[in-house]
Amino acid sequence: MKNIDVLYTEWKSLQPISEKIQNRINQKFMLEFNYNSNHIEGNTLTYGQAELLLMFGKVDGDAKMQDLEEMKAHNVGLKMMQEEVKSTERPLSEYFIKNLHKTLIREDYTVRKEQEDGSIVSYTVHAGQYKTRPNSVRTDTGELFEYASPEETPALMNDLVKWYNETSSKGTLSAIELASLFHYRYIRIHPFEDGNGRIARLLVNYILLQKGYPMIIIRSDERDNYLSALNRCDTAVGFVPSDGAQAKIEQIQPFVEYMKKCMERALTIRIKAAKGESIDEEDDWKKKLKLLSVKTKESPFRTNQLVNKALEENVFLLNDKIIEALSPFKDMFCKIEVDHINFYSVDEFKRMLSERIVGDVYYSAIVITIGETLREYDIRIPIEYRFYDRSYEICISFKDNYKKETLRYNNSLSENQIKSFVNFVGQNFLQIYEQYLQDDKE
Known about the structure:
The protein is an alpha+beta fold. It has two domains: 4-296, Fic-like fold (Orthogonal Bundle), CATH 1.10.3290; 304-441. The chain contains 15 helices and nine strands. The protein has helices spanning 4-13, 19-40, 47-56, 65-86, 94-105, 153-170, 175-189, 196-210, 223-237, 241-244, 253-274, 284-296, 304-326, 346-354, 415-441; strands at 109-114, 120-125, 136-138, 144-146, 333-340, 361-372, 375-387, 391-398, 401-408. The protein has a five-stranded antiparallel beta sheet, covered by helices on one side. A two-stranded antiparallel ribbon has the order 1-2. A two-stranded antiparallel sheet has the order 3-4. Strand 8 and strand 9 form a beta hairpin. Helix 4 packs antiparallel against helix 5, helix 5 packs across helix 8 (196-210) and helix 7 (175-189) packs antiparallel against helix 8. It is elongated and about 75 Å long. Residues 47-63 and 291-298 have low confidence and may be disordered.
């Protein structure tokens, strides 16, 4: 393969390229980068599912909600990074890195892990904040490899960002050398409790874009080579975290060579695209086959198990979320509760619906009782669930306002869909409550 300088010169000579070709390149990179970077960290979405999610906003087939949200958040982080590069007057900052992390992680969450002695330890992953507890990995030889301590991290990250901005302006390192060294130093600090690999790969492309080079992809099927190159550098640098955070370019040559191969591949693909040639890779047929199988796969017919899953994970969860959102008003009201108005118990309805004894509509309502004990007034928020053979609808209506979501039985409501429903109910409830107060004055 030609070296980077030759490929880069050829690529630049083909500029500018048409908008159509640029869109082809952008779409291929967006899908490949999000898919591979998340798969390195254990995301289980297939390539077909990732493509459907990122291109069309939905996924068929079984998929973990966490994996779906991770993939979408990572794509937002990619766009955010690309926008940041356009702000050429702004140097790299810790604020941007923390904000990028917050975008990827979305919100704080608790992790529970079993220790070697069988005990359970739990800790919180903080979105957009440096780690508050030590983090480490177990090597293949069984040894514990430590990253920078929580106490060291702020100073080391400050030094890393300062070093990058100064070195970048001096131009003493090539773009791929600068990106490689930044990646290695960052990973040796491991500043966050989670998401460090994804952040590192986004920042590598931030650096390359800043220097006028195309973005690269570290492929998940090369994960072992990627990690092996980093591990070989550890031997040369040493295992003290602060030494890793101050590594020199000559100490990380195995990783630089690996990253050069990634850049050569990126430039080769873009040169082919600029010349009007196919940019499909040898194994792209496998990805397309997976995509085709996902697109053509029908959602299953409703069964007792699927109906129960839909009710437990969506219907009753949504009721609880709405009540939780309205709970700050509970001192003003006599009560807030769910009224199931099908004239039989929830368990009976679940059984009868799955056996097709009853109709396809299930009704419930959030009932909010307001006012004084002697003069109560009920606000009823009707929720209708319509069950079909392969999908069901959630419908909430307030007079002229109406909101609906259609879901497959094997999919769950996303966090954004739940928030959207809760906000819809809250906004309309507030209008009704304000009208109640106005009527009460009159």
